[in-house]
Amino acid sequence: MTTVWRLVLLAAVSTSLAAPAFAQAAPELDAVGQLANTIRWGGVLTSALLIAGAWMIMRLVSGFVAGFSAQFSTRRLTLKKIETILQFVIFVVTTILVITLSFEIDQTVLAVMGGSVAVAVGFAVKDLVASFIAGIIILLDRPFQVGDRIEFGGFYGDITAIGLRSVRLQTLDDNTVTIPNSKFLSDISSSGNFGELDMQVVMDFHIAADQDFDRARNIVREAALSSRYVFLSKPVVILVNQTFSDGLAAIRIRLKAYVLDAKYEKVFDTDVNLRVLRAFRDAGILPPVLFRPNMSPPAAGDQRPPVSA
Q1: 3-state secondary structure of 179
Q2: Fold (CATH) for 41-140
Q3: Model's pTM, two decimal places?
């Protein structure tokens, strides 16, 4: 009997000690239970399928846009804009449907979700929300568009995507740079074509001060007009002026011409430079040379290789 009473007493003591712990854990268990009761487990599978379907649709849209952009280059920028808007709409609609299907929305759920979202926004995703709002401002204000060639933060290239969180820029070295949307609200960006296919390209050529600058000007103009990449619907401008730098006097011939598509910018630059350099060489037009007191001037007939800056 003594052993039995000891066991009874031990059980009673254990129960009394464990009661406060269960009492403290009860509210947490109740909250978890309430949250579990609000989940529509049948809708979770449907939501997963919906997310997979939305992802596939976005991939198909991107594929169609890439294919049509290659065939109809004049509509490339318009197609990119449509793709951006469709992706934005698909994302928002999918998010709303997933929440509706996965949870039983009532006042309790709204209160719980509202409090959770407030805490998350305040402590965890404030930068994400700032970028999201900035993305909407970019879409409405349009400082640049998908397909534009811009310079921002030391990077120069084409805008390939404007997302809810960030902008993707593909540099001319084929590097993809991801920039948070919020950065564009405070920093300065420069767009070369601003929604158009064509873009102005500026090239400088330098010749010695005693060379035939009229002929050199005509050579530069002819090289630009005869290039297959020039956009002739806009004017080709040639500017001539003298420059002095570190004891060097030269004639600068500046070409301002438009390339028919921004993606051909560097090809157009190379094409015109090669034409000008060959024509300068054939015409005997020489580049400027820096003379120092301990240097003798070049001999007559010295054919220095022409250069462009």
Answers
A1: strand
A2: Helix Hairpins (1.10.287)
A3: 0.60
